[in-house]
Specification:
- The radius of gyration is 23 Å and the shape is elongated.
- The strands form 11 sheets. A 5-stranded antiparallel β-sheet has the order 1-13-2-5-6, with no helix packed on it.
- It folds into 2 domains: about 150 residues, Trefoil (Acidic Fibroblast Growth Factor, subunit A) (Trefoil), CATH 2.80.10.50; about 280 residues, Glycosyl hydrolase domain, family 43 (Tachylectin-2, Chain A, 5 Propeller).
- Strand 28 and strand 29 form a beta hairpin.
- It is mostly beta strands.
């Protein structure tokens, strides 16, 4: 198995290229294909350079079906393409936001000698080192394939990518709200399954947790970081004690990843952090530091993170609260930190936050909490949803209304007992956890868990 780091490189064996992160090395020059100057801009040039161990020299290669691959830069999050749909010999290769057009798709063929040809789907021409130049900065272009060393490329894997998400859903199943007991005080819960137990993390001091053998009776756990981390107050000086908001726990690529928020109420001075472990039961959490930050000059708020894995196993992060709404950004599958541009996917004039994004049977489903939270029985939270065929939207509801324009179908509006449901998370595709305020107990926030069912038109329901 290849180590997850740029310093540990293993060669790809003959056969199909597996999804992962690679360096692309010219046979002729021995230099690496990169985005020039580590640019993050659309249209930036693709060239070669001696090894620097910078992420601009690594590429996320993903099988997109029908024998073609996308090749996305691991620094910029943008795709390698033939610029401006060129078909001529010598036309330039650059980067651009990935949208899946033929000019961004490539066949990758094992030549049987440790090297590969890389041919553009639209033009039918090969990735080529211009004039077989060996200098740093030499340009990468396309040219009719003839098989010379300037058209042969070594793919060295520097990181793996996880598999596609798990679908455990049931169509038209019976409504099932779980009868819970034990330690139920909760805000913004997120749940995982390991070692025949359910594990739950929530807003609270140092990332507070719970455990249950059956998902019904819950007992408290020690906090993940009971003393907090020094860097939290660097980004959010007014953080209260070790208060941490809205953690999200997800399994991906051999680890449990936990994203979480540091903020104060009503402020955009916020940060999203990341920790991981190979075993929740074993503890031993590794701190990966800050992921995203925001301040009062931003039109978004860096809180409420949610990890989603797309149909090909690529990780993305949804986040955001109020302001300009919910964003989605691609993640580097090795560092699990953002690369590329933010995509706005949902806004609501009533206030919107707590995104949960999942993939199921050809659609991405976005669940959000709309309205006001954190005011007991006066809370106005309710859970809306929409879906899209792309992880970056657009998301529309059952009536076709775009969630960027206050669209969204109602999943849960609460009732006389359970007021203001929200802060939701979905385990796989069939269990939804959330909090609501108990009108029979002075509006105390408590845990609710239900089976998430789906109707015959692939819309979620209880």
């Amino acid at each position: 198995m290849c180590a997850l780091g740029l310093l540990s490189i293993c060669a790809v064996h003959a056969g199909a290229v597996s999804n992962g992160v690679y360096t692309v090395v010219s046979k002729h020059s021995g230099k690496l294909v990169e985005v020039a100057s580590a640019s993050l801009e659309n249209g930036a040039n693709v060239s070669q350079w001696s090894a620097t161990e910078h992420w601009t020299q690594s590429w996320i290669i993903t099988d997109e079906g029908d024998g073609y691959y996308s090749i996305v830069n691991a620094n910029s999050g943008k795709a390698m393409e033939v610029y401006d749909w060129g078909t001529a010999d010598g036309d330039n290769v650059a980067q651009y936001d990935y949208w899946g057009g033929d000019s961004q798709l490539w066949s990758i063929t094992d030549l049987g000698n440790g090297y590969y040809s890389i041919v553009n789907k639209f033009s039918g021409k090969s990735l080529d080192l211009l004039n077989s130049d060996t200098a740093d900065g030499a340009n990468i272009i396309q040219w009719s394939y003839w098989g010379g060393d300037g058209q042969q490329w070594q793919l060295d894997q520097v990181g793996t990518m996880g598999g596609p998400p798990l679908d455990t859903s049931t169509t038209n199943g019976a409504e099932n709200h779980w009868p819970l007991t034990g330690n139920l005080g909760t805000h913004d819960p997120s749940m995982a399954w390991e070692n025949d137990q359910f594990w739950l993390f929530q807003t609270g001091p140092g990332i507070y947790g719970k455990v249950s053998p059956d998902g019904l009776n819950w007992s408290p756990l020690p906090s993940v970081f009971p003393d907090g981390l020094n860097w939290w107050k660097t980004y959010v000086p007014n953080q209260e004690g070790t208060d941490v908001w809205a953690p999200d726990i997800e399994w991906y690529n051999g680890r449990y990843w936990m994203y979480y928020s540091i903020s104060t109420f009503g402020s955009r001075v916020s940060a999203i952090g990341l920790a991981s472990t190979t075993s929740i039961a074993g503890g031993n959490w590794t701190d990966h530091g800050v992921v995203l930050t925001s301040n009062e000059s931003n039109d978004y708020n860096a809180i409420d993170p949610d990890l989603v894995v797309d149909a090909n196993g690529a990780p993305f992060l949804a986040f955001g609260s109020w302001n300009s709404g919910i964003k989605v950004v691609r993640l580097n599958p090795v560092t699990m930190k953002p690369i590329g541009d933010f995509h706005s996917v949902a806004y609501n004039a009533e206030g919107i936050e707590a995104p949960t994004l999942i993939y199921r049977q050809g659609y991405y489903y976005l669940f959000v909490s709309v309205g006001t939270c954190c005011d007991g029985v006066n809370s106005g939270y309710h859970i809306l949803y929409g879906r899209s065929t792309s992880v970056t939207g657009p998301f529309v509801d059952k009536n076709g209304a775009n969630m960027m324009y206050s669209g969204g179908s109602l999943l849960d509006g609460g009732n006389a007992t359970w007021v203001g449901p929200g802060g939701e998370d979905i385990l796989n595709t069939d269990v939804i956890v959330r909090h609501a305020y108990d009108a029979t107990d002075n509006g105390a926030p408590k845990l609710l868990i239900s089976t998430l069912n789906w109707d015959s038109n692939d819309w979620p329901r209880y």
